[in-house]
C-alpha cells in the first residue's frame, strides 16, 4: 500500500489554482483562449470545459464578484500535466474574473461541483513551459 498523498483532479489534464491558498481548486479536460481587441483595450477570454471545481472556492469567488470586492479579480494559474501528472506548461491569467459558468444537471453524490464550461476574462496571460526553466 502506498503512502502517497491522493492527487485531487488527477484524471484531468489542466489543473487550476484560483489564486487562493491550498490549490489546485479545479481540474479540466479542455483549455483555450481568445484575445479580444476593442479600441485601445485588450482582454483575453479563457474557456475551460468538462471539469470539476471545489464548490466552496467557486462560490466564494462568485460572491466576491457580485459584491464587487477588490479581491474579485484574481491571478489564476492553469497547469498542463503530462500522462505522469508532471507539469508541462503553465499559464498565469492575470487580473481574472468569472464571465460565465455552466454546470451539468445536479448530482447529490459528491461535494465537488461538476462544470461543463467556465469562462474567465483576464487582463494578460503569462506562459511558462518546463523547457523554459531548465
Question: Could you characterize what this model shows?
Answer:
With 134 residues, the chain is mainly beta. It is 12% helix and 54% strand. The chain has a single domain (14-133), classed as Hcp1-like (Pnp Oxidase, Chain A), CATH 2.30.110. The chain has a six-stranded antiparallel β-barrel.
The CATH class label is Mainly Beta
Mean pLDDT: 83
Percent of residues in beta strands: over 45%
Give the CA-CA distance, first to last residue. Answer: 34 Å
In short:
With 134 residues, the protein is mainly β. 12% of the residues lie in helices and 54% in strands.
Strands, helices and their partners?
Blueprint: E1 14-17, E2 26-38, E3 41-54, H1 55-66, E4 74-81, E5 87-102, E6 112-122, E7 124-129, H2 130-133
Antiparallel strand pairs: 1-2, 1-4, 2-3, 3-6, 4-5, 5-6, 5-7
Descriptive tags:
134 residues; mainly beta; Pnp Oxidase, Chain A; six-stranded antiparallel β-barrel; 12% helix
Amino acid at each position: 500500500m502506498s503512502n502517497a498523498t491522493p492527487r485531487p483532479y488527477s484524471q484531468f489534464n489542466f489543473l487550476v489554482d484560483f489564486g487562493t491558498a491550498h490549490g489546485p481548486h479545479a481540474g479540466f479536460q479542455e483549455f483555450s483562449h481568445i484575445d479580444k481587441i476593442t479600441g485601445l483595450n485588450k482582454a483575453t477570454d479563457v474557456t475551460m470545459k468538462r471539469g470539476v471545481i471545489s464548490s466552496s472556492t467557486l462560490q466564494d469567488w462568485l460572491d466576491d464578484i457580485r459584491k464587487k470586492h477588490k479581491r474579485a479579480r484574481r491571478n489564476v494559474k492553469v497547469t498542463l500535466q503530462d500522462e505522469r501528472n508532471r507539469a508541462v506548461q503553465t499559464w498565469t491569467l492575470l487580473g481574472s474574473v468569472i464571465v460565465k459558468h455552466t454546470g451539468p444537471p445536479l448530482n447529490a453524490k459528491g461535494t465537488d461541483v461538476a462544470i461543463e464550461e467556465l469562462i474567465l476574462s483576464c487582463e494578460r496571460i503569462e506562459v511558462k513551459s518546463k523547457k523554459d526553466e531548465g
